[in-house]
C-alpha cells in the first residue's frame, strides 16, 4: 500500500472549511480533493490533513496524506489534479512517504499567518484575504504582547467554547508581528493549536493595539483559563495555514 | 451644478462589465455605483467613465464623473460609499472639477496593464487576476514585438469585429513588458483604445512568444488591417485599467 503526501493551497472563500460540517450547507475542501483523486485512482480515498481549517480560512501550505494501490507516479498528481479540481484549490506537490506517516499526528510544527490590512480605505481585490482594520494600533504594545504567547501555557482562555478537547496546554515557538507597508502579519508557530486559538490571539492583540488592554494583560488572560477573558475571535478570512513541518 | 470626479477600484470578476449590456444577465459596475451615490444625494445620477471595461476586466484607476446639486463635501463620498457599495468596488478618492470636465472625452492618457502568470502550477488565489500561461515564452522576441506598437498606426487588425467605430488610427505612447518573478506585465498607454485592442495585442504577443510568429510580424499584421491576421483575444481577467491622466 502506498502512502502519498500532498502539499495543498486553497482560497477558502467559497468553502465551508476543510471538512464536511453537519450544520453547514456548502462544499468542503477535503471532499472535493478526495473526489478528484478518486477520478485518478478509481477507488475511494480518505485524506488526513495537518490542519482542519474553518470556513473562509485559507491555506498556502496545507499538508494531507492518503493511501492508494494505484501505480500513478506521485509527481503526476499535481498535474492531473490541475485539470480536475476547481481553480481555487491547487495541489502544489506530491510525494511517496512511509506507510506510517500521518499528516496530522506527525506534524512537528504548524505555522499560521493572520493578515491585517491597515490602509484607510478597503481594497477591492483584497477584502477576502485579510482583515481590514483602518483604525490606529499601538504596534509596539502589540509586539510586546505577542512575546507573552511564547513558551508553554494553558491556552484555555484562547480556545472556543464547546471544543471537545480536554488538554489545553500548548507550546508556542514563534509569535511575531511583521510590518509590510499597509499590512500587518501575525505569524504563530506551534506543534498544535486549540480551536480558534490563532483567531482569538489576534482578536486579543487588536484589543491591546486599540488601547483597551496592555501587553501584560496577556499573562492575566492566560491565568484566567476562561474564554470570556480574551478578546473576540478575529474574522476567518484573514487566516492562512502557511506551513507544516515534519 | 457641481461636477464630481471619482477614482474607482474594482475587482471585475463578479460583474458583466462597467456598463449594462442588453445581452448579459448580471450586475454592472456603473449601475451599482450610481445606485450608491443616489442613496447619498437623493437624486438620479449618471456616471461618465474614462474606460467602459468589459466583463471580468479589473480596474485599479478607473475615473468617472457625475453632476449633483448636493452640498455633501467631495471628500465624504469615498467614506460614505465604503458602507454602501459591495466590498469589490471601492471609491478611492473624490474631488470637485470644473463643470465642463468629462472623464472620457478629456482623458489625455489611459494605461492598461495585462498580467500573465508564468509559474508551472496555477495559484489558488490569483486565478481570477491574471492569465496563467505555464509554457515557454521567448521574452526578448516579445519585447521587440511590443516596440512595433509604439507610435501612430491604423489598429484595425487589433479591433474586435463588429465594433461600431469607423476610425482605427490610434497613438500608443508606451508598450512595455515588465518581469517580476513569476509574473509578466504588459503595460500599454494611449489616449484611446479600440474595442478589445489590448487583449488582442496580448494574444498576438503570446503567439510571438510561443514562436508562431516573429517580432517583425507586428508590422505585417498592422498593414493587413483585418482582425483575422492578429492573434486571439487574451482572457479578460488578466486586464486592468491602471491609470487615467487628464
Automatic annotation (TrEMBL), chains A, B:
Enzyme class: isomerase
Name under which the protein is recorded: tRNA pseudouridine synthase A
GO molecular function: tRNA pseudouridine(38-40) synthase activity
Function: Formation of pseudouridine at positions 38, 39 and 40 in the anticodon stem and loop of transfer RNAs.
Residues annotated for substrate binding in this entry: 112
Keyword list, A-Z: Isomerase, tRNA processing
Residue ranges of every copy of the Pseudouridine synthase I TruA alpha/beta domain listed in the record: 8-105, 145-246
Subunit structure: Homodimer.
InterPro entries: PsdUridine_synth_cat_dom_sf (IPR020103), PsdUridine_synth_TruA (IPR001406), PsdUridine_synth_TruA_a/b_dom (IPR020097), PsdUridine_synth_TruA_C (IPR020095), TruA/RsuA/RluB/E/F_N (IPR020094)
Amino acid at each position: 500500500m502506498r502512502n502519498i503526501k500532498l502539499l495543498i493551497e486553497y482560497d477558502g472563500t467559497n468553502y465551508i472549511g476543510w471538512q464536511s460540517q453537519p450544520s453547514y450547507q456548502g462544499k468542503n475542501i477535503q471532499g472535493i480533493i478526495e473526489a478528484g483523486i478518486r477520478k485518478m485512482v478509481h477507488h475511494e480515498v480518505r485524506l488526513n490533513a495537518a490542519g482542519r481549517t474553518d470556513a473562509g480560512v485559507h491555506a498556502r501550505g496545507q499538508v494531507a496524506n492518503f493511501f492508494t494501490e494505484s501505480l500513478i507516479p506521485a509527481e503526476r498528481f499535481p498535474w492531473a489534479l490541475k485539470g480536475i479540481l476547481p481553480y481555487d484549490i491547487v495541489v502544489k506537490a506530491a510525494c511517496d512517504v512511509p506507510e506510517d506517516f500521518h499528516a496530522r499526528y506527525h506534524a512537528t510544527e504548524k505555522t499560521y499567518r493572520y493578515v491585517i490590512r491597515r490602509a484607510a480605505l478597503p481594497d477591492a481585490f483584497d477584502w477576502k484575504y485579510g482583515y481590514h482594520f483602518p483604525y490606529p494600533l499601538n504596534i509596539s504594545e502589540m509586539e510586546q504582547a505577542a512575546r507573552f504567547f511564547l513558551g508553554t501555557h494553558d491556552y484555555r482562555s484562547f480556545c472556543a467554547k464547546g471544543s471537545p478537547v480536554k488538554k489545553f496546554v500548548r507550546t508556542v515557538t514563534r509569535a511575531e508581528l511583521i510590518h509590510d507597508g499597509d499590512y500587518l502579519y501575525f505569524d504563530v508557530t506551534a506543534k498544535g493549536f486549540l480551536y480558534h486559538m490563532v483567531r482569538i490571539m489576534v482578536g486579543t492583540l487588536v484589543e491591546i493595539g486599540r488601547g483597551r488592554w496592555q501587553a501584560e494583560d496577556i499573562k492575566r488572560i492566560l491565568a484566567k483559563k476562561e474564554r470570556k477573558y480574551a478578546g473576540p475571535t478575529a474574522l476567518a478570512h484573514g487566516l492562512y495555514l502557511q506551513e507544516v513541518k515534519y
